[in-house]
């Protein structure tokens, strides 16, 4: 393929150094007066008044990982250990055990150390069962390190609540 | 000895023994040929059809496992037809495979997984539902069978027919209906049954012991030797989170081929026994290592001064390594001990792998000439204690508890004035012991064991011990230094240097040259 030369019009460097300062100040002042007049005329503001109001995050948002709870109350996880292996921060601890049900295996212990978790979503990507997904929950601050260790019962979230994320994920990973 | 011939594989000339399976010759030369049913220690079955290659002069592809090597053979493995066959075989095997890898314990070391990643199609073409078969069938004391996962390679069937000659497993019915199962009147309970889980290339046969325990990719493997009997089967210790999760056999044609017995395989729980002694006991109370060593050295020194070394007896443990027992020999020599014995627990044996002596290193103790006599001097020592000649005892290991009748042992231990014990678990019988040191298991130290046939084999440290922990050899060395002021160390190559100077049978071997297969002692022994 022959090379093609394109001349690009580069902006000329500013000759006077205080010009951009004035331009920026102008923008700020303009916004100030526009808002002042806007509020006087009853315009809505964009600020979300947390915690009374909550911003609803889009499904692509990666919050803390949670376990999908099936309608029968059980976790979907079969303790295959792929998330534990995929996790770059080693924050997941699983002890599998046997059950009488058809899937044979379930996690007897499923702990996530949220103080280590970096919300990367690799566990969700590794999971073959759609059992661990990233929720929209990010408000997980706590007063002790022990409090940031989440056990299986704390991590279970009903499937219906996670529907937006699951619907978003399926085309992402070409799942049927 | 078969004649060495030359075979050309994909333009490369390899050497092979005439008549050997072509597949084995290619594998030995490092050529990757996928295969399921072929196993070097079993007869050839040819049921998986995966190892097919093109051989010049033969119109159709040939299975390389059942093709004997001939001189001048020209083999092609990188052939369009070979690739088609491999894709076809993997598609056929995956037709009815349940693909429940997330709950299958074989996942991670499964040959079907590996080969389907290598040769398989991404999507299945079949629209028929997968065949339903028995899952989690309880076919034996220690084994589970999943018929859906089985790919009918018949390795396990051949193992039961040829190696154990018990023949419990069989492929029933024909064609698409074929399934692996046990006969109605025979469960898979032979003493080697768990080997079928090792040779199963998929997760059809699983051990109950390892069922749903841990994923294999977390396991860290250490080459070692089974401590459960005098045969010294070569094993891999699979550990994770500083705990043993399973023992699997490691190939050594001189000792155990690729097998091990179920009893040995399951005998690892004692390492993580919650009752195990975690710190030394001085007069029955927990103490620091230094306190215990001071007390033991002081008590031994006092006893020698008051009664003389000949009033002290010693019992050597056949569970300790050659190096540790060599050091113990030096220690008791320095103390002037005359009466030395070894207690070895005995159990059932067979003529394959299981040996009667349930300890790994009894032969090593005899080769070091620490003990004498047919019963390893145990009767003489016990008699000397009963007659009052011996009043102190340094006891290593707890095999004595199971070899001497309880009431006699009680009497003997009550007669002693000084008792120092190295043991795994605290025992009420040792209540009068001045010092009890915790002993270190095979998985927590380095060293060598000598098996019943005089093969010296390396064991390696797979688990970490707590900070400040001393293994048995280090305890002996510390006591020797305290009593004799020698400044000895328990670095293994230094111990071997001392052993070489000592002029015993081990001096003919070089520690650093003991490879994964071990080294045979010269016939001088016994």
In brief:
The complex is a heterodimer of chains A (176) and B (526). Chain A has 176 residues and is an alpha+beta fold.
Please provide a written account of the structure.
Chain A has a three-stranded mixed β-sheet. In chain A, strands 2-3-5 form a three-stranded antiparallel β-sheet. By secondary structure, chain A is α+β, with helices and mostly antiparallel strands. The two termini of chain A are 41 Å apart. Chain A is built from five helices and six strands. Chain A has a domain at 65-173: Alpha-Beta Plaits (2-Layer Sandwich). A seven-stranded mixed β-sheet of chain B has the order 15-14-20-19-18-16-17, sandwiched between helices. In chain B, α2 crosses α3, α7 crosses α13 (472-484) and α8 packs parallel to α13 (472-484). Chain B contains 14 helices and 23 strands. With 526 residues, chain B is α+β, with helices and mostly antiparallel strands. The longest helix of chain B is centred in the middle third of the chain and has 19 residues, at 289-307. Chain B folds into three domains: 4-92, Ubiquitin-like (UB roll) (Roll); 126-272, Alpha-Beta Plaits, CATH 3.30.70.20; 281-520, Rossmann fold (3-Layer(aba) Sandwich). The chains are: A alpha+beta (176), B alpha+beta (526).
Side-by-side strand order of the widest sheet of chain A: 4-1-6
Q: Count interface residues per chain for the largest interface.
A: A-B, 15 and 13 residues
Overall number of strands of chain B: 23
**Oligomeric category:** heterodimer
Which architecture of the largest domain in chain B per CATH? 3-Layer(aba) Sandwich
Q: Mean pLDDT of chain A, rounded to whole units?
A: 89
Total number of helical segments of chain A? 5
Using only CA atoms, what is the Rg of chain B? 28 Å
CATH fold topology of one domain in chain A: Alpha-Beta Plaits
Runs of chain A in which pLDDT lies below 50 for 5 or more consecutive residues are none
Structural class of chain B: alpha+beta
The strand count of chain A comes to 6
User: What would you call the shape of chain A?
Assistant: elongated
Number of domains of chain B: 3
- Distance between the amino and carboxyl termini of chain B: 31 Å
């Amino acid at each position: 393929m022959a090379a093609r030369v394109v001349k690009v019009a580069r902006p000329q460097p500013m000759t006077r150094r205080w010009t951009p300062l004035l331009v920026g100040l102008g923008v700020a002042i303009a916004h100030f007066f526009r808002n002042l007049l806007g509020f006087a005329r009853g315009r809505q503001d964009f600020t979300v008044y947390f915690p009374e109001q909550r911003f609803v995050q889009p499904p692509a948002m990666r919050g803390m990982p949670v376990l999908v709870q099936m309608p029968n109350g059980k976790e979907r996880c079969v303790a295959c250990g792929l998330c534990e292996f995929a996790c770059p921060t080693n924050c997941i601890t699983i002890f599998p055990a046997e059950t009488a049900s058809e899937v044979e295996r379930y996690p007897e212990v499923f702990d996530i150390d949220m103080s280590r978790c970096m919300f990367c979503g690799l566990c969700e990507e590794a999971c073959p069962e759609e059992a661990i997904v990233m929720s929209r929950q990010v408000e997980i601050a706590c007063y002790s390190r022990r409090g940031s260790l989440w056990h299986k019962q704390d991590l279970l979230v009903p499937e219906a609540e996670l529907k937006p994320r699951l619907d978003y994920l399926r085309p992402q990973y070409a799942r049927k | 000895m078969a004649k060495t011939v030359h075979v050309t594989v994909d333009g490369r000339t390899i050497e092979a023994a005439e008549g050997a399976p072509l597949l084995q010759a290619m594998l030995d030369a490092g050529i990757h040929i996928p295969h399921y049913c072929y196993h070097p220690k079993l007869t050839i079955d040819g049921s998986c059809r995966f190892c097919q290659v093109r051989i010049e002069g033969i119109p159709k592809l040939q299975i390389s496992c059942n093709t004997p090597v001939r001189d001048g053979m020209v083999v092609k493995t990188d052939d369009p037809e070979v690739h088609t066959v491999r894709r076809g075989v993997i598609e056929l095997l995956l037709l009815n495979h349940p693909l429940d890898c997330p709950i299958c314990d074989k996942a991670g070391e499964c040959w079907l997984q590996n080969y389907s990643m290598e040769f398989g199609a991404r999507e299945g073409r079949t629209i028929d539902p997968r065949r339903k078969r028995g899952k989690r069938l309880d076919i034996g004391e220690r084994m589970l069978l999943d018929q859906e996962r089985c790919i009918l390679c018949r390795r396990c069937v051949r193992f039961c027919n040829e190696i154990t000659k018990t023949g419990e497993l069989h492929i029933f019915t024909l064609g698409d209906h074929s399934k692996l199962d046990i006969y109605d009147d025979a469960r898979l309970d032979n003493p080697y049954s768990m080997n079928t889980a090792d040779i199963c290339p998929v997760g059809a046969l699983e051990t109950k012991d390892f069922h749903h325990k841990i994923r294999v990719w977390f396991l860290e493997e250490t080459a070692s030797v089974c401590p459960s009997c005098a045969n010294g089967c070569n094993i891999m210790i699979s550990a994770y989170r500083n705990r043993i999760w399973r023992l699997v056999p490691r190939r050594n044609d001189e000792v155990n081929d690729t097998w091990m017995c179920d009893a040995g395989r399951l005998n690892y729980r004692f390492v993580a026994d919650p009752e195990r002694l975690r710190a030394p006991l001085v007069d029955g109370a927990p103490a620091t290592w230094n306190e215990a060593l001071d007390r033991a050295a002081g008590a031994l020194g006092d006893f020698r001064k008051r009664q003389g070394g000949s009033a002290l007896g010693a019992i050597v443990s056949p569970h300790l390594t050659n190096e540790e027992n060599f050091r113990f020999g030096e220690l008791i020599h320095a103390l002037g001990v005359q009466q030395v014995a070894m207690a070895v627990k005995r159990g059932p044996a067979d003529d394959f792998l299981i040996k009667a002596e349930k300890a790994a290193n009894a032969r090593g103790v005899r080769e070091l000439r620490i003990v004498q006599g047919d019963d390893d001097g145990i009767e003489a020592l016990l008699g000397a204690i009963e007659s009052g000649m011996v009043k102190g005892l340094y006891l290593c290991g707890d095999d004595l508890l199971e070899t001497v009748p309880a009431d006699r042992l009680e009497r003997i231990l009550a007669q002693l004035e000084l008792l120092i014990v190295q043991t795994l678990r605290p025992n009420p019988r040792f209540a009068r012991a001045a010092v009890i040191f915790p002993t270190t298991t095979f998985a927590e130290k380095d060293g060598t064991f000598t098996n019943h046939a005089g093969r010296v084999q390396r064991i390696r440290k797979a688990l970490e011990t707590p900070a400040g922990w001393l293994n048995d050899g280090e305890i002996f060395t510390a006591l020797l230094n305290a009593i004799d002021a020698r400044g000895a160390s328990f670095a293994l190559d230094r111990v071997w240097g001392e052993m070489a100077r000592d002029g015993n049978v081990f001096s003919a071997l070089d520690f650093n040259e003991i490879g994964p297969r071990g080294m045979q002692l010269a016939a001088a022994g016994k």
